[in-house]
Amino acid sequence: MIQERAIYKLESGRDHCKHGIVYTIKSNDGVMWAIDTYWDSRFTKGLNSDGYCYIVDEIEDQMEFVMMLDDIKEVSREEFYLYDIEGTIHLPVGGWNERYLVNKNAKKNIERVCDSIRSKIISNDNMIKSLKRDNEKLIMWEKSVLMNENVAQLYKNEKYELDVVDAVEMYSRKKEEN
Q1: Which of 37, 44, 62, 73 could form a disulfide with 11, with the two C-beta atoms 3.0–4.6 Å apart?
Q2: Taking the complete model, does pTM exceed 0.85, yes or no?
């Protein structure tokens, strides 16, 4: 039985300007409707939506329950991937907003959390190594500038510039050419 104020995947509903993800509401006359989330990812427009509205009785056999609207918790994209697929729903960019929703009772997957932490540790280690290399280059620049003031004219204050040795060599060649 289809529930009111719930989110469903619609088996054949994915198409141009349709996510194939719907939420259900009842109209004043008691008819249950399914509203595609493409133009109403905030679940606020209801039957006033410019998007696709379906009569639930006509598509009920194509609808797969995801979660109740009251059980939704919005999370960041990064946090979304820490949960198991079951109990989550991604609303792609449609008419307005991309949203990452999880069931407020869902638990994060421990393996995914640990993988994320390990990945950040590796990334931080790589960043530290890169910054150390940058500092070594900067120290070399400073020493070279203090030894020869002409070298200061080669320094551009850009992150990925020449090593000081290459810059001095290039400067020397230019002087020889003139």
Answers
A1: 62
A2: no
